[in-house]
Amino acid sequence: MTATDTEIQPRAKGLTRRQKRRLSRGAQYVVFVAAVVAFAVTADWGRLKNQFAQWDIARQMFPDVITLALKNTVLYTVSGFVVGLALGMIVALMRLSSVGPYRWLAGIYIEIFRGLPALLIFIFIGVALPLAFPGTEIVGGTYGKVALALGLVAAAYMAETIRAGIQAVPKGQMEAARSLGFSPARAMVSIIIPQAFRIILPPLTNELVLLFKDSSLVLFLGVTLEERELSKYGRDLASTTANSTPILVAGLCYLLITIPLGFVVRRMEAKAQEAVK
Predict the structure, then answer these.
(1) According to DSSP H, which parts of the chain are helical?
(2) What is the rounded CA–CA span in Å between residue 16 and residue 266?
(3) Fewer CB within 10 Å: C terminus or N terminus of the chain?
(4) Distance of alpha carbon 158 from its chain centroid, rounded?
(5) What is the CATH architecture of 61-275?
(6) Which family would the database say this protein is a member of (predicted)?
């Protein structure tokens, strides 16, 4: 037996990398199944059903939970997204500007509104702004305040996303547009920004999902019964009925929106990867 055969023989007795991966994956599945079984066996399903699954209470929530709470949630989210997108575009262009003060202002805005919790922004809009400017009314009432608060938060994130998308467009696109007689502004609007949005559409959709959940902070602005969104609506009914079923139903209504949006994001990301290949 040669020295080479001696070196190879011990390796043949051990597990290969593929076998190790299979063994590790199998162990993870076993742990997961064991955890699920342990939860199913030890949980008190009777108490959970009494507290979260009272179907007579759930039935009383319809159709208001859809026609009122879910509708308001969607309106708050869409209006905040529109304001955030418009403001984010402006901040992104300021961030890319050759004028120093524009870049500094955009950078300060992004750092402040990305660093502050959304809750503080809502309190600022609902409390500090009326104190600073007495008698000033935001157009749209509560809907306008929510759109402004959500828009200020979303714009800081969208601005960086849009900036990254613009910078991802090859510089040759701008040079080609300029050679055809386009001004820098027209080339940016007609050539660069449309290509950038095709790149950043998935992360912008993710931002829409986050705004959908952040709309629950509207309660800090003080809303009427007709202005309640899902979380506020669920909490009010939970307090009235002394049961948590309304909160569960409200959570399921959130999933009616977020799960399809998540699917759309994954489809867009897959198409983007296919286009790159």
Answers:
(1) 3-13, 17-42, 45-52, 55-60, 64, 71-95, 100-115, 118-123, 129-132, 142-168, 171-179, 184-187, 193-214, 230-241, 245-276
(2) 34
(3) C
(4) 11
(5) Orthogonal Bundle (1.10)
(6) Belongs to the binding-protein-dependent transport system permease family. HisMQ subfamily.
Structure tokens belonging to residue 92? 């992104």
The residue whose two tokens read 């079923």 is 245
Nearest to 91 by CA among 82, 101, 100, 103: 103
Left, alpha or beta for 122 (phi > 0: left; psi -120 to 50: alpha)? alpha
Longest dimension (CA), the chain: 96
Q: What is d(CA 208, CA 82) in angstroms, rounded to the nearest whole number?
A: 10
Rounded distance between C-alpha atoms, residue 153 and residue 223, angstroms:
20
Give me the pLDDT at residue 135, please. Answer: 78
The Cα-based distances of 39 to 25, 35, 83 in angstroms read 21, 6, 44
Residue 19 host element (H or E): helix 17-42
User: 75-111 pLDDT, tens per residue?
Assistant: 999 999 999 999 999 999 999 988 999 999 999 999 9
Average pLDDT, the chain: 87
Rounded distance, CA 220 to CA 41, Å?
Answer: 40
Distance separating alpha carbons of residues 218 and 188, to the nearest angstrom: 36
Give the tens place of pLDDT for each residue, 130-171. 888 887 788 888 899 999 999 999 999 999 999 999 999 988
CA-only gyration radius of the chain, Å: 26
Query: CA–CA separation, 87 vs 173, rounded Å?
Result: 25
Question: How high is the pLDDT of residue 12?
Answer: 47
The residues, any chain, with a CB within 8 Å of residue 163's CB and separated by 6 or more, are: 92, 95, 96
**How far apart (Å, rounded) are the C-alpha atoms in residues 139 and 277?**
47
10 Å CB burial of residue 232 (0-12, 13-18, 19+) is: buried
